[in-house]
Amino acid sequence: MSAIERKWYVVDADGVVLGRLATRVATILRGKHKPTFTPHLDMGDHVVVVNADKVHLTGRKRTDKLYRWHTGYIGGLREVTAETMIRTHPERVVEWAVQGMLPKNRLGKAMAKKLKVYRGAEHPHGAQQPGPLPEALAPRARKVGDR
Asked: What is the pLDDT of residues 131-146, one digit of tens each?
């Protein structure tokens, strides 16, 4: 059996809607963009997302959407709006959106490890020579009001 060829892709999240970005990234992590896609095998590539702090949310999600997590201590349930979360932890927002679109098993956790998200435009993965996404998979940045 031959080794699976893995590529590295870089995605710029500047002005891209969070759901569209997460869908495209999950497609690459699962390997659905390859003609040899097999549902229960890890065929996907690595993805580096930059400018996570400039991701766009539509509608009233910025104020109405809530992120919840538990710290593990008594009374440790935390609840924060999406606006606060994007300001403080934009990497976590993108990671959680992508993880929501991956399988909920060990294979999904292995796929999520191939995702690297960074707040700014700089990333330390230059040695892997990440390339831009193919046009068919690239999420399109849409301006507010476009339909």
From this structure: 888 776 777 666 555 5
Query: What's the CA gap between 75 and 141, in Å, rounded?
Result: 40
Question: Looking at the DSSP assignment, which residues form a beta bridge with residue 77?
Answer: 70
Nearest-angstrom CA–CA distance, 146 and 13: 18
15: buried, middle or exposed (CB in 10 Å: 19+, 13-18, 0-12)?
Answer: middle
pTM: 0.87
- Each residue of 96-113: b (16+ CB within 10 Å) or e? bbbbebbbeeeebeebbe
What pLDDT digit, counting tens, does each position of 56-93 carry? 999 999 999 999 999 999 999 999 999 999 999 999 99
Give the amino acid at 17: V
Interaxial angle between packed helices 18-30 and 90-99, expressed in degrees from 0 to 180 and rounded to the nearest 10: 60
Residue 116 near residue 125 (C-beta atoms within 8 A): yes
